[in-house]
Description:
The chain is α/β, with parallel strands linked by helices. It has helices spanning 40-51, 79-85, 105-118, 132-141, 157-166, 192-209, 230-234, 332-345, 371-383, 409-418, and strands at residues 9-12, 18-19, 35-38, 94-98, 123-127, 149-153, 171-175, 212-217, 237-242, 249-257, 265-271, 274-277, 295-302, 305-317, 325-328, 353-359, 391-393, 396-397, 403-404, 423-426, 437-440.
Amino acid sequence: MTMAKKKILFECQHCGLTTPKWMGKCTNCGAWDSLVELNEQQQEVIKLTSTSSPKGRSKARAIQDVTQTEVTRFSSNDAELDMVLGGGVVPGSLTLIGGSPGVGKSTLLLKVGANIAKSGKNTLYVTGEESEGQIKLRADRLNAAEKNLYLLSEIKLEQVMLELGERDYEFIIIDSIQTMYSESISSAPGSVTQVRQITFDLMRVAKERNIAIFIIGHITKEGSIAGPRVLEHMVDTVLYFEGDSSQELRILRGFKNRFGPTNEIGVFEMRNEGLVSAKDISSRFFNQNKSQPGSALTVVMEGSRPLILEVQALVSDSHAPNPKRQATGFDNNRLNMLLALLERKLEIPLNGYDVFINIAGGIKINETSADLAVLAAIISSFRDRTISKETVFIGEVSLVGDIREVYQIDIRLRELQMHNINKVLLAKKPKEHHGVKCYEVDEVTKLIEWF
């Protein structure tokens, strides 16, 4: 009688890659000495979470026979969060929210939990990082001590499940997923196996009991949520908090949403009473009071919301063989492309200068409509000439030097009109000006006429 050969499997503790052979460096994420051998029980967990469905086995049906289900939502009583979620919280959904330490994840969700509890829904806040006394202290500061808000200081998943059986909850907050562990898995809290199994169990509970669950995830030094990538695949919604803890404004951005758009952002302001929806945010990202060299305004679209941003540029003499090109809030590769275009088309000798670009307010620009403003700011700084704060630059710049149109120009012009900005440079004059004087600039060479 021959014994069955033991199956050996190693797993990367950074990204969750599984391989039958040990390697010093993970071929997926590049981490060194991160592969750990899994026992038979942990291998069964991987097999379960990879192949099982929370709804059980199902049979294929013709798509014409499938009845469309309406997605119901309830408000979190926070306008900015509701906007990012696509209109409100969906019962039975699993949402992952990440961000750097101190950015306000726990503060926001505690306040949201109190708002939902105030509307009559039983809400459970599970904390594995702080005691109940610490949460109560924060709740008193945020005016979040509501009757239907329950606290549970626990890191064992089994104890959380027992609590769910004693009371009907409609909203649950897990703070954080890396501190939770299951007694059925022989690995430390925060390990890839633990995170995978616990997320799977929470997903099953959310779907079966129709409970909306928000889980907080730690992030790595690279800025991504710690743990395996399967964590983001399993949840319904992934939200990231952006912003510096030393600044008042925070930005909540959606990266995945099965129930709504992923291009919306929420803007929050940190106050003594916690994170609140920022009011009149449009004027927070630019300064209209004083014109200075190296500053130009543009309008970008964040989802359905137009934002007027200030692009700042600094061009200074370089004392190094290779001049510095550095951008904050703007793509560095695109900056290098625009600088090469300036040297070629406008014959501006920037090879002996350091060039720095900054987008005021901590916003990261993800579209190309700010190209023209970046060029204007660089030329303004290089020639030491100011640009009027009544002038805005909107346009995408191509490699051949053409300036191209951008989408939703009507919405952008309406935003300018609301802030009494009466002059805009763009690729093509629109039919409706909305009270804003539009000047056509279809080539980069024509931009120099404004300096």
